[in-house]
Amino acid sequence: MQKLIERVPAERLSFIPAFKGNVFELSTHPYGCRVLQRCFEHLSEEQTRPLMDELHKYIINLMQDQFGVRRMLMPALKFLLICFTELRRTVCSRIWQAA
C-alpha cells in the first residue's frame, strides 16, 4: 500500500476514500499508521483533508498511543502549521489591500 501511494498518480488511487471512518484504527496500527503517513506525504490536501479532519477527533487518544504520537501527530502538526501560515498570509494581504 505504501509503495502504491508513493508511486501511482494520486488521481488513480480510488481506494483512499475507503479509509474514511477507519482513520483511528489505521493510525494506531503498526502498519496502518505508515500507510496514512504516506497519504499525508504524497497526496493532495483535497484527498487528505477528510482523513485529517477525522484524525483530529482522536488527538487525545493518539497522544497516548505509541504509533499515534510518532506517526500521526507530527504530520498533523506540520499540516496545521502550513494552514496557519496560509491564513496569516491571506489576512495580512487583505489588511494591506484595505489600507
Instruction: Extract low-pLDDT stretches.
Output: none
Average pLDDT confidence is 81
Separation of termini?
A: 51 Å
- DSSP helix count? 6
Portion in beta strands: under 5%
Total beta-strand segments: 0
**What would you call the structural class?**
mainly alpha
Could you spell the SSE succession in H and E letters? Answer: HHHHHH
Shape: globular
Approximate helicity band: over 70%
Radius of gyration: 15 Å
Main sheet properties: none
Describe it for me?
With 99 residues, the protein is an all-alpha fold. The chain has helices at 2-7, 23-27, 32-42, 45-56, 59-63, 66-98. α3 packs parallel to α6. It is globular, with a radius of gyration of 15 Å. It starts with a helix and ends with a helix.
Could you give a quick summary of the protein structure above?
With 99 residues, the chain is mainly alpha-helical. The protein is 73% helix and 0% strand.
Write the layout of secondary structure elements.
Elements (H helix, E strand, L loop, with lengths): L1 H6 L15 H5 L4 H11 L2 H12 L2 H5 L2 H33 L1
Helix pairs in contact: 3-6
Features:
99 residues; mainly alpha; 6 helices
